[in-house]
Write a structure and sequence with these properties.
single chain; TIM Barrel; two-stranded antiparallel sheet; alpha/beta; globular
Length: 353
Amino acid sequence: MAQDILLVGSIPFDTPEQVLTMCGQKLGDSAAYFPDGETYERIWWVNMLAYRVFHGHPEIDTVMRPPPDHGVEKWRPSDRGELWQFAVKPGVKEVKFGDPGWRLNYTKDAVGSYFVFKTLRKEGKLPADAKFQVCIPLTNSAIDVFFHNPADYDVIKPGFEEAIRTEIAKMCELIPPSDLAIQWDCCIELMDLEGNFPWTPKENKLERNVAPVERLSPYIPKEVKLGYHLCYGTLGGWPMVKTAKDLSTAVEWANAAVARSGRHVDFVHIPVLDRTDDPYYAPLKNLKIGDARLYLGLVHGPRPAISDRIRAAKKVVKDFGIGAYCGLGRHRPDQVAGILDDHVAALETLHGH
């Protein structure tokens, strides 16, 4: 059963120590990668970038922000209708981001959390071979959801991708690459391919949503583990995309991303809706991700339903790991222990017990 569980990222605790301690206790050797829970601002995923990076940037206009709550300012949207919106200012040819290696905040948080990770691992509270997992949104997940004018994309994306590359390079200076796993979060990409964003270009959707992989993944040192997490979104309740007819879109994107990564890919996570019908899972037979480990995000709802989804998937793919559909950031802290227990219980079905 070793390393058959993937922790997707966010866990609604206050500190990385709380997250890593709980996950170590509950999952032990069943997980290969341990994230810090994306605590505080990162628990709201790319909204952290909206608040900390895009808002106030001298080359970006803030078009809309979450409304005040009873007269008190807030930066966390309550639902999709409260999402931040931005536009590149007229006349700007390229948006650039300062403080290379630090501007997006991922390095800062990773360095602090890694100290906690390696301390707990040394104390035996995490597996000796565990990797520290850092989750970063792929380009379109960070940009397309907030910028509604496609004309802005060529102006802002090159600078943003350069900021990501320097962030990862700095991380690898300060954290041993052999201890590190990078997970690209690819939620908006999948939602866009499912037709969920009316403002994005309709032509060449797959190419547009896969192309950033070629510009980012090859820059990750080969000693670092690399994975992709696909998602249907959770803001306002999961899934934000309820109309996916089957897993074909996710499979098509995963195949293209792995083929164009320019380096070895270690894992791919595909979310699974509350479905057990054979046609829904059938596209998994077309999955071409080499020796990357497949994790299916089917741990949600009652345990019997989880078991049913596992059995349905096993008709098509025999060897896969399991995870939640997304991070647990939209759950209450008191729900986390039970959800992790659900992961462990699901292993019995996965392995035929």
